[in-house]
Design goal:
The protein is built from twelve helices and 21 strands. The protein is an alpha/beta fold. The chain folds into two domains: about 210 residues, Enolpyruvate transferase domain (UDP-n-acetylglucosamine1-carboxyvinyl-transferase, Chain); about 190 residues, UDP-n-acetylglucosamine1-carboxyvinyl-transferase, Chain (Alpha-beta prism), CATH 3.65.10.10. The strands form six sheets. A four-stranded mixed beta sheet has the order 1-14-16-15. The structure holds shikimate-3-phosphate. The site of shikimate-3-phosphate has 11 residues, from helix 5.
């Protein structure tokens, strides 16, 4: 495999700029937006709430509007997007809006109590079906400052609460036990907000200090490290490959996979590092590499949480054992990802052991032969990961239920094929 590609826009950041930008209520052009199902469902929901977001083939345009946010007359359908549902719940609660949030089968089975409980403590008025979607929000007013010690490592929870505080014009202090992705904090700072991160003794503190944000007329979304990770591992696994991925988001709270792959012996070089929209970005060159198994440090898990499916594929072809623990959150993603990874690895005949909170994988140097169909469990990252495993297969691999790739990386097949893979769609 060889070639050069531009990294598609970041899904998490695309959704955040729509939400924060709509709250700022200004004219703003957004470049690099990820045109995929998840950001698009967030966009539609915001427009139903009274935002004025338009698009053409190149950009997104936020328009300053004369009306404030309103109670939507229709359900807000967040499709497959946990980020959309959880972050919007923060915004809506802070604004005291009456609404009903729904989602697809997967999203309707994902836990929402993690955001509902602290929002109720803040003063929100929310009803749900045992902590899952559909969720109804009722008029309310959050009118007090709030302090929250997060029981789990979740950037979605943290961002939801920051948005609830911002939109209700209250202060908030959140303490996280493990550092999770900090795109919301960086975006707040980009628009002139101030966040106090405590001193050396106050690990994980995030305190919203100045919440008078200023407007800007332009925002550029950096490339999505999570999408780049499929290309990175593909290039590592392929023979004689060299791929350049341009404009990849390299925020340290997201790009832990690079650290792990380097530990495993990968040939990865980062060039042209710069700051864009208060986020680190750079170009990555990846060449074919022989990997060794690794014991993944537990504190890095929140920073590789979306990359564990593709890391499992890298581990499947490394020498020795890779151990991933403390990753029980994988069980409540778009699918039960530990189960989905284990089921797929079994079909590839890769030796592994699944735990309640992780998996250990013993890699093979041999080419695999897979005669069975692999199930993606309707999960985009599982689908893409197992398609990449086909690079090391004698007879290719077949993955079923790949439509969900549209949620995060619609150009996956075209980009991978342009680099030398051979992914075909069958109906
Ligand atoms: C996300 C945070 C992560 C991640 C998800 C996107 C975000 O979820 O898995 O794909 O945009 O904040 P958690 O914060 O729930 O771990």
């Amino acid at each position: 495999m060889s070639g050069e590609v531009d990294c598609p826009g970041d899904k998490s950041i695309s959704q955040r700029i729509l939400i924060l930008g709509s709250l700022l209520n200004c004219d703003m052009e957004i470049d690099g937006f990820l045109d995929a199902d998840d950001p698009n469902s967030t966009l539609d929901a915001l427009n139903k709430l009274g935002a004025s977001i338009h698009r053409d083939v190149k950009r997104i345009y936020l328009k300053k509007r004369s009306i404030t946010f309103c109670n939507p007359s229709e359900d807000l359908n967040l499709g497959n997007s946990g980020t959309g549902a959880r972050l919007l719940l923060g915004l809506i609660s802070g604004l005291g809006i009456k609404s009903r949030l729904v989602g697809d089968y997967s999203l309707s089975n994902r836990p929402m109590s993690r955001v509902i409980s602290p929002l109720l403590e803040m003063g929100a008025n929310i009803e749900s079906k045992e902590g899952t979607l559909p969720i109804t929000t009722n008029a309310c007013s959050i009118n007090d400052d709030y302090e929250y010690l997060m029981p789990l490592a979740s950037a979605q929870v943290k961002s939801c609460l920051l948005l609830a505080a911002l939109s209700s014009k209250n202060n908030i202090k959140i303490t996280e036990s493990k550092i999770t992705r900090d795109h919301t904090e960086r975006m707040i700072e980009f628009f002139g907000g101030e966040i106090y991160y405590g001193n050396e003794t106050s690990f994980g503190q995030i305190e919203l200090k100045n919440r008078d944000l200023s407007t800007k007329d332009y925002y550029i979304v950096p490339g999505d490290f999570s999408s780049a990770s499929f290309i990175i591992v593909a290039s590592i696994l392929a023979d004689n490959s060299e791929i350049l991925i341009k404009n990849v988001g390299l925020n340290k709270t997201r790009s832990g996979l690079i650290e792990i792959l380097l530990l495993m012996g990968a040939n990865i070089v980062i060039k042209n590092k710069k700051i864009l929209s208060n986020e680190a970005v750079g170009d990555i060159i990846i060449k074919s590499s022989n990997l060794n198994g690794v014991d993944v440090p537990e504190n890095i898990i929140p920073n590789i949480i979306d990359e564990i499916p593709i890391l499992s594929i890298a581990a499947a072809f490394a020498s020795g054992k890779t151990i991933i623990k403390n990753a029980a959150e994988l069980r409540v993603k778009e699918s039960d990802r530990l189960n989905a990874i284990s089921k797929g690895l079994s079909k590839l005949k890769i030796s592994h052991e699944m735990f309640d909170d992780g998996i250990s994988i013993t890699g093979t140097k041999d080419e695999i032969e897979c005669d069975d169909i692999i199930d993606s469990f309707d999960d985009h990252r599982i689908a893409m990961s197992f398609l990449i495993s086909g690079i090391r297969s004698k007879n290719g691999v077949t993955v079923q239920n790949c439509k969900n790739i549209e949620t995060s990386f619609p150009k996956f097949k075209d980009i991978m094929n342009s680099l030398g893979m051979n992914i075909n769609e069958k109906n």
